[in-house]
Design a protein that fits this description.
Blueprint (H helix, E strand, L loop, with lengths): L3 E2 L2 E2 L1 H22 L4 H10 L4 E2 H8 L3 H13 L3 E6 L2 E9 L1 H20 L6 H17 L8
Antiparallel strand pairs: 1-2, 3-5, 4-5
């Protein structure tokens, strides 16, 4: 498939390249906050509420062993804590610590600012159109909420 069709970037190329662009912004933002991209995603997910490990694995798209390592590292850094699951005594829920919640709020706000800046040359109507179209892609593909 050609990257350009009739002088315009193809849908596939535009989506793939924009995914790389947003990912790079996310990675750079995380690095500046002293966390990994995955830790940033974990913190942003946990901003809404604590989750069980199975739920987190599904939301983040991580295998159990990868998620366990991510939570272990984040716990050692004082960003999250494991709590007993009141509904299942065999399970644990992962929640933000005070330090983790503060970092999540700061990281989230700064990363949103940086991603929003990518469309700073757009008119409000263009931003609305982009949001509506990408929103359909996300909804049609049942992408879990990672970033509020």
């Amino acid at each position: 498939m050609s990257e350009y069709v009739d002088g315009q970037i193809s849908t596939v190329s535009a989506l793939v390249r924009s995914a790389f662009l947003v990912n790079a912004v996310y990675v750079n933002s995380a690095r500046e906050y002293g966390i990994t991209q995955q830790q940033g995603q974990l913190l942003c997910v946990l901003m809404a509420q604590p989750y069980g490990m199975g739920e987190l694995g599904a939301i983040l798209g991580l295998a159990k062993s990868s998620l366990t390592g991510l939570v272990d590292r984040s716990e050692r850094n004082g960003l999250v804590r494991r709590e007993a699951d009141l509904e299942d005594s065999r399970a644990v829920r992962v929640a933000l610590t005070r330090r983790g919640a503060k970092l999540a709020d700061e990281f989230y706000a700064e990363t949103c600012r940086r991603v929003e800046a990518l469309t700073s040359a757009f008119t409000p109507a263009e931003r609305d159109t982009l949001a509506a179209l990408l929103g359909r892609v996300v909804a049609d593909n049942k992408v879990p909420v990672v970033f509020r």
